[in-house]
Amino acid sequence: MSVKQHRRLFVPIAAAAVMGLALTGCTGDIAAQTAEDTDCADYEAYGEFEGNPEVTIGGTIQDDEADRLVQSWADFQACTGIAVNYTGTKEFEAQIAVLAEGGSAPDIGIIPQPGLFNKLADAGFLEPAPEAVEANVDEWWSEAWKGYGTGSDGTFYSAPLMASIKGYVWYSPTEFEEKGYEIPKSLDELNELTATIAADSAEGAKPWCVGLGSGDATGWPGTDWIEDYVLRQAGAETYDKWVTHEIPFNDPAIVEAFNSVGETILNPDYVNGGLGDVTSLISTEFGDAGLPILDGTCSLHHQASFYEGFWKNADGSEVTVAPDGDVYAFLLPPAKAGDQQAVTGGGEFVGAFKSSDEITAVLTYLSSDTWANNRVELGGVISANTGLDASLASSDILKQSVEILQDPDSVFRFDGSDLMPGAVGTDSFWKGIVGWVSGDDTQKVVDTIESSWPKS
């Protein structure tokens, strides 16, 4: 999957099938710059390198987002003389461990989930982070974010890069105003709103539109629903115990979350507006699932802050994302009105497979507040870097997301399935969601996922 800030595909592939594969999908060249054309004051600390040494970076980021990523280090390249060459491919996660084992990994990898990071670190493929990178992370990130880039051996390997806030509920401000709907302040109020919309809806329209389709990763949007409800209903402490297996996957708190989510997304009266019946959740691509809000056949869609970039009208005209625009979003409310808001989110990490002075310079830049501000100002993404100026974010939703990430009082938890072992988080949990939507009993689903948890 190529879009930033949502779960990306990680499917083990036999070594023989990927040993000959190279990372493909390199972004187009940006306009050449020189130090004479650029204000280099912010880049003096990285030094100047003779001979334009190359540093290669690989990741899953592609298309327009990759172009903006490349643009984010244009000044750095011009001022340091380092040629930074990025290659994006949807196969990055499936290939990278085998490429690293064969000595053909890129110098740096943008790793989209802690589970994959831990796999690479435990296998000894990643270099410990340079001191300058760790100093940046100590200054600009929370202890929790640093922990996501720290291996099981206690070594710090990877600095955070970009981030997202999950659990937004997208809606039409015009519809809410015309029909007198109010933003819910609790999960009970959200349920009441859902029932009201169902009663008000014209034939063929439903309150919610949901899409779980994502190729071999089909099911992951459903895991986000479950994680959001576990965090809100059971609390952060139980959430932490769940993702680390201090409580089993089939704990009653997890069953409660499944059943609460099921009251909405498995209810034929509530889904799947403009798309089909309950079974259409599986076949509907997650990127298209919210679009029926634009034609009024659904009213609500649960998806992360990154979904802002998916809105498109059928005729190609621009969709305005704003409190008074075509679409906007509110956070999934807490279990009870007045409870502290808690949110889930995701992010990416930058790790090195090799070491050199120029690689250290690139890693240090990417872990800096300078890079975070440069990239966010280009639009479409955010970062948890506390040195980021939230006003640079390209929309109200993204500004709000930055403020949540920077607020020391926010209850933030990383996407649970990204933290779980791959056999669970990117396998049995995804498959369990598909089976559940297809009719499997909740207890059977959670029992099956629990049985897949690695024993050691």
What features would you highlight for this structure?
single chain; 2 domains; D-Maltodextrin-Binding Protein, domain 2; alpha/beta; 456 residues
Structure explained in plain terms:
- It is a single chain.
- The chain folds into two domains: 222 residues, D-Maltodextrin-Binding Protein, domain 2, CATH 3.40.190; 210 residues, D-Maltodextrin-Binding Protein, domain 2, CATH 3.40.190.
- The chain has 19 helices and ten strands.
- Helix 18 runs antiparallel to helix 19.
- The N terminus is likely disordered.
Helix count, DSSP H or I runs of 4 or more residues: 19
Note the run of SSEs as H and E.
Answer: HEHHEHEHHHEEHHEHHHHEEEHHHEHHH
Strand % is 5-15%
Q: Note the main sheet.
A: 6 strands, mixed
Domain count: 2
Would you tell me which CATH topology of the largest domain applies?
A: D-Maltodextrin-Binding Protein, domain 2
Structural class: alpha/beta
